[in-house]
Amino acid sequence: MEVELVLPALCTGFGAGCLLLAVRAVLAVVRLWVRGLRVTGVVTERTPADRRRGGLVVFSDHLGRDLVLDPGAYATLCGLPPVGRTVPVVYAQERPAAARLWTLRHLLAPSFGWFLSSTVAFGTAVVVTP
To answer: Between 119 and 77, where is the model more confident?
Structure first.
C-alpha cells in the first residue's frame, strides 16, 4: 500500500465506523419510538455535593419502582425543563434503567454527533486524497 493512501484509508475507515454508530443510535431511537413505554418524570435537584449542572429526572417504571435518570451534562441544551416541572420519559420495558428523555433533541443528539463526526472524517479523506 502506498504511503499517500494510508491517511485517506484511515479517514474513510473512521468515517464508516462513525456512520455505523450513527445508524445504530437512530435505530435505538426508532425502537424506543415504536415499542417504548412512555411515562412522566419530575425534574429534581442534584445533591449539593454533586457539582454537575442540570437536574435529575425521577420516574416510576411499569412495576412501580422509582428510578432516577441522569440526562447528562448538557441536559439544559437538550430540553430539560426547570426543577419541579414534569418531563416525558421513554424506556424499553425490559430495560427501564436505560431510559431517555422523550424530547427530540435528547433522543437525536447522539446520532447527530456521530453523523457530524462521520462527515468530517469523510471530508478529510476527500481533501487529503492525492
So the answer is: 119
